[in-house]
């Protein structure tokens, strides 16, 4: 038997002391070998999984790219068949981009490298009308030469973003028309195109063989395993590397367990003091959790008085902790819930250890009402209740908002005029809205749960409806629009249109089909009435003595033309064609923005071209062009203008004739002075008293009088000469001065004074100065003649000029005469109407014609102090 000494010696031996350490070291070595074995096995399994997953991702990637090629090819075919224009292209391409986030834009490029369409329109790097550049040009040429879709090499934008293009050529038969280009964003491509599970499981890089373009995470994994997926036709490849995040955590966990087990032997040697310190730390942690908790924690007496509260409780109510302790929780509850809560507290205390849950409303220090969900846990032997509350105000508000949103959507759905019907995948009706019941005449209870044939199908074409339903249920078409004749419950037939779409639940699974039913009976009747109206319209247009053509605005297709158009304007080879628009009609439609007169050389006739928008029988907008022969009217107007011009010259001659005696008297004065000065010079020469010094002043006076007479004759000759109207930039002050040179002669005869007030500065006017002088002279002469009954001191005529706008200058001639009666103001500017006994009645009519020729207006109004004001406007010259 071993003695106690043996055990003591064993304890004192070195082997005995090293045994625990040796055991720990052996344990560590064993665990290290196990970890190395597991790591090697895991690497092998990771390599196998990487190969399998890469093959699957490569298949998915190719299918995704093939879908993109198919969609762009469809756009290219529609462009080649001219089935879509720029507007349709923008809509379809935007819809495609909405479902393809990896693409930033879709371009329509013609065969000259020019961009005709860009989707989306707000793409900042590209503009319509610009040209392709960079690597896109080489890819464009390669796709055009090979006649198939081509992927371009990657290129980098100024912002540092990498992109690459998918080129799909556009052909009409064998004629190359351009290219549809899809632009990929490298960042979006690596996030969207690979399967989501593949991107989450592996670290992905997209490179071109020389540098990394983009990666799905910032930091690369430490694993050296990798697998590449090449994009056909480019140098791009997608490199996948396994992410060992979870496995690393597992190894760390295993290592932690090993270290923990090793330390467990050491922890058994810790003293009781460490155990006490750990317990104190646990209590401190408990207090910390209690203070940091967002729940309202507190202790109540059975009468509801607060014994202890945490900071969240204090912050929620907004009162100081000193004020809360020793007060009843009932004081902070809503008055309607205080009594019920008091009774609940008594029940909780009496029930013992049974916990209770209740919702109450509390009023905080800011008088805000908050909803709190309480958990009450009683401690019967101590007579207290542990209280835990959670603020659910936001949740209740969200629930209320959700309820209101549901009621709103329900009300909106019930108020629809379109019938909504939902069917399951087997054709059973699962839902109908009130509009569907109102259209078909059946109640909701009569339709829910029915299988085809449905009672609202018309028996005559039930087989057609069966075929459509069979196509729908088989999933041959994702969206289907068809029209059919259906029957209401009372046997009345109606024409209906159904739009059928898949019904997808929140998980993305199809659970049935949704159909929108529209009653098209009234629309069909309206279309028939429109067709009948179109026939009456054609009958009326054919009877007009004018050429009429209707052209579709978008495609310039000739929809209709009457016999006058075919007789006057149609080409010989297009008489029987009604679906083409010749070059002449196209030019007429482009310039027919307003009613205008045009001259056709081949017909040698004048026509009035009018354009009116009309809605054709197919409800599309069209343009109606009407050409009326106005040759005779145009010739008559031209003869009328020639007569007016002759009347203007005649009016000037008549004015000079009326002023002939005054002009003769005005010319007699300088001529008499010249004769007297000349006689005096001759007499001095005869007497021998003449010297050059004495004769020079006399000769200068003779010259001045001769220039005075010549100036009068020159002014009269310029005024009465007949010439074509020539508008040019002139100073209005110079025109008024030239008019006054003649008018002041008449003013001296009539004993009148002319005052001129010019606003400064005045711009030049674009007028014929001779015609404006005629207007001024006529109005000035009429004003002076109207003041002959006044005393000489009051015969004052005012001429004022001011600028009324940046394009108009107004001239006002104000007299203080007898005025114009109101009953003749409307006839004052009519031809051959005059108030003078010897007048022709053409003066004011000619004045108005001249002013209107200059795009102005001539008007008359009474002077507030007596007399008449004639106003006319003239255009400002715009350089």
3D shape: elongated
Query: How large is the share of residues in beta strands?
Result: 15-25%
Distance between the termini: 135 Å
Provide the structure class.
alpha+beta
Biggest sheet character? 6 strands, antiparallel
Radius of gyration: 52 Å
How does this structure look, described?
The protein is α+β, with helices and mostly antiparallel strands and 879 residues long. It has 24 helices and 32 strands. Strands 1, 2, 3, 4, 5 and 6 form a six-stranded antiparallel beta sheet that branches. Strands 12-11-15-14-13 form a five-stranded antiparallel beta sheet. Strand 11 (296-301) and strand 12 (306-309) form a beta hairpin. Helix 23 (769-786) packs antiparallel against helix 24 (843-853). The longest helix has 67 residues, at 14-80. It is elongated. The N and C termini lie far apart (135 Å). The model is unreliable at 1-13 (pLDDT under 50).
Secondary-structure blueprint:
Elements: H1 4-12, H2 14-80, H3 86-98, E1 103-110, E2 115-119, H4 135-146, E3 150-151, E4 155-156, E5 162-172, E6 175-185, H5 186-192, H6 196-201, E7 202-207, E8 212-215, E9 227-230, E10 237-242, H7 245-267, H8 272-292, E11 296-301, E12 306-309, H9 311-317, H10 321-324, H11 338-351, E13 356-363, E14 369-379, E15 384-391, H12 393-414, E16 419-424, E17 429-432, H13 434-440, H14 444-447, H15 462-474, E18 480-487, E19 493-504, E20 510-519, H16 521-542, E21 547-552, E22 558-561, H17 563-568, H18 583-591, E23 596-600, E24 605-615, E25 621-629, H19 631-658, H20 660-687, H21 692-720, E26 728-730, H22 732-750, E27 753-758, E28 765-767, H23 769-786, E29 796-803, E30 808-815, H24 843-853, E31 858-862, E32 868-875
Parallel strand pairs: 27-29
Antiparallel strand pairs: 1-2, 1-6, 3-5, 4-5, 5-6, 7-8, 7-10, 9-10, 11-12, 11-15, 13-14, 14-15, 16-17, 16-20, 18-19, 19-20, 21-22, 21-25, 23-24, 24-25, 26-28, 29-30, 30-32, 31-32
Helix pairs in contact: 2-7, 20-21, 22-23, 23-24
């Amino acid at each position: 038997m071993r003695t106690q000494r043996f055990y003591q010696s064993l304890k004192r031996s070195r082997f005995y002391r090293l045994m625990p350490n040796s055991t720990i070291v052996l344990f560590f070595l064993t665990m290290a070998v196990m970890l190395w074995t597991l790591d090697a096995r895991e690497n092998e399994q990771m390599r196998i999984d990487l190969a399998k997953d890469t093959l699957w991702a490569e298949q998915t990637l190719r299918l995704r790219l093939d879908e993109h090629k198919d969609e762009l090819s469809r756009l290219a075919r529609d462009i080649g068949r001219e089935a879509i224009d720029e507007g349709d292209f923008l809509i379809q391409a935007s819809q495609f981009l909405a479902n393809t986030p990896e693409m930033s834009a879709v371009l329509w490029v013609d065969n000259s490298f020019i961009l005709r369409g860009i989707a989306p329109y707000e793409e900042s790097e590209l503009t319509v009308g610009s040209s392709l550049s960079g690597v896109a040009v080489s890819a464009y040429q390669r796709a055009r030469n090979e006649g198939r879709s081509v992927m371009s090499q990657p290129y980098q934008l100024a912002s540092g973003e990498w992109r690459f293009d998918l080129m799909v050529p556009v052909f009409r038969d064998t004629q190359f028309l351009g290219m549809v280009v899809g632009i990929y964003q490298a960042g979006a491509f690596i996030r969207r195109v690979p399967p989501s599970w593949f991107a989450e499981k592996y670290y992905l890089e997209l490179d071109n063989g020389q540098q990394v373009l983009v990666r799905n995470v910032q930091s690369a994994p430490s694993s050296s395993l990798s697998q590449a997926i090449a994009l056909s036709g480019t140098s791009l490849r997608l490199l996948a590397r396994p992410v060992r995040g979870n496995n690393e955590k597992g190894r760390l966990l295993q290592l932690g367990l090993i270290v923990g087990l090793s330390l467990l032997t050491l922890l058994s040697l810790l003293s009781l003091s460490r155990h006490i310190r750990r317990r104190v730390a646990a209590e401190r942690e408990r207090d910390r959790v209690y203070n940091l908790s967002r729940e309202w924690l507190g202790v109540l007496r059975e009468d509801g008085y607060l014994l202890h509260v945490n900071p969240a409780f204090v912050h929620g109510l907004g009162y100081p902790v000193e004020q809360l302790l020793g007060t009843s929780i009932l004081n902070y509850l809503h008055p309607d819930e205080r009594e019920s809560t008091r009774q609940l507290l008594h029940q909780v205390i009496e029930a013992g250890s049974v916990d209770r849950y209740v919702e109450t409303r509390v009023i905080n220090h800011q008088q805000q009402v908050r909803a709190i969900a309480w958990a009450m846990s009683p401690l019967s032997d101590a007579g207290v209740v542990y209280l835990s509350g959670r603020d659910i105000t936001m949740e209740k508000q969200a629930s209320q908002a959700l309820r209101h949103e549901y009621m709103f959507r329900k009300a909106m759905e019930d108020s629809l005029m379109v019938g909504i019907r939902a069917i399951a995948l087997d054709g059973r009706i699962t839902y109908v809205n009130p509009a569907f019941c109102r259209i078909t005449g059946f109640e909701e209870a009569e339709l829910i749960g029915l299988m085809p044939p449905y009672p609202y199908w018309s028996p005559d074409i039930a087989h057609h409806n069966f075929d459509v339903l069979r196509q729908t249920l088989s999933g041959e078409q994702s969206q289907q629009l068809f029209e059919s004749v259906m029957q209401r419950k009372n046997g009345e037939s109606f024409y209906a249109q159904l739009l059928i779409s898949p019904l997808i639940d929140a998980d993305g699974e199809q659970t049935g089909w949704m159909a929108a039913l529209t009653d098209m009976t009234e629309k069909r009747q309206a279309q028939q009435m429109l067709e009948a109206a179109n026939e009456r319209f054609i009958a009326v247009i054919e009877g007009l003595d004018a050429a009429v053509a209707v052209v579709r605005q978008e495609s310039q297709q000739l929809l209709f033309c009457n016999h006058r158009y075919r007789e006057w304007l149609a080409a010989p080879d297009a008489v029987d064609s009604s679906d083409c628009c010749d070059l002449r009609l196209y030019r007429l439609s482009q310039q027919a923005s307003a009613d205008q007169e045009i001259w056709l050389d081949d017909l040698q006739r004048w026509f009035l071209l009018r354009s009116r928008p009309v809605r054709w029988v197919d409800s599309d907008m069209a343009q109606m062009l009407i050409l009326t022969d106005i040759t005779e009217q145009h010739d008559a107007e031209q003869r009328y203008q020639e007569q007016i011009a002759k009347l203007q010259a005649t009016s000037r001659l008549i004015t000079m004739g009326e002023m002939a005696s005054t002009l003769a008297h005005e010319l007699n004065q300088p001529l008499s002075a010249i004769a007297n000065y000349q006689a005096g010079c001759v007499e001095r020469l005869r007497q021998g008293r003449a010297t050059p010094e004495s004769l020079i002043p006399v000769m200068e006076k003779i010259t001045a009088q001769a220039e005075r007479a010549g100036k009068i004759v020159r002014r009269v000759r310029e005024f009465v000469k007949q010439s074509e109207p020539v508008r040019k930039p002139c100073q209005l002050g110079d025109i008024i001065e030239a008019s006054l040179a003649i008018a002041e002669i008449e003013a001296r005869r009539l004993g009148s004074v002319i005052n001129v007030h010019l606003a400064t500065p005045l711009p030049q006017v674009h007028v014929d100065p001779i015609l404006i002088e005629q207007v001024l002279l006529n109005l000035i002469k009429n004003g002076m003649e109207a003041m002959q009954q006044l005393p000489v001191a009051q015969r004052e005529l005012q001429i004022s000029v001011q600028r009324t706008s940046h394009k108009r200058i107004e001239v006002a001639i104000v007299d203080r005469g007898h005025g114009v009666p109101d009953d003749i103001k409307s006839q004052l500017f009519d031809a051959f109407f005059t108030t003078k006994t010897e007048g022709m009645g053409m003066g004011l009519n000619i004045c108005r014609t001249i002013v209107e020729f200059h795009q102005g207006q001539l008007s008359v109004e009474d002077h507030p102090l007596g007399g008449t004001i004639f106003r006319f406007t003239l255009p400002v010259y715009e350089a």
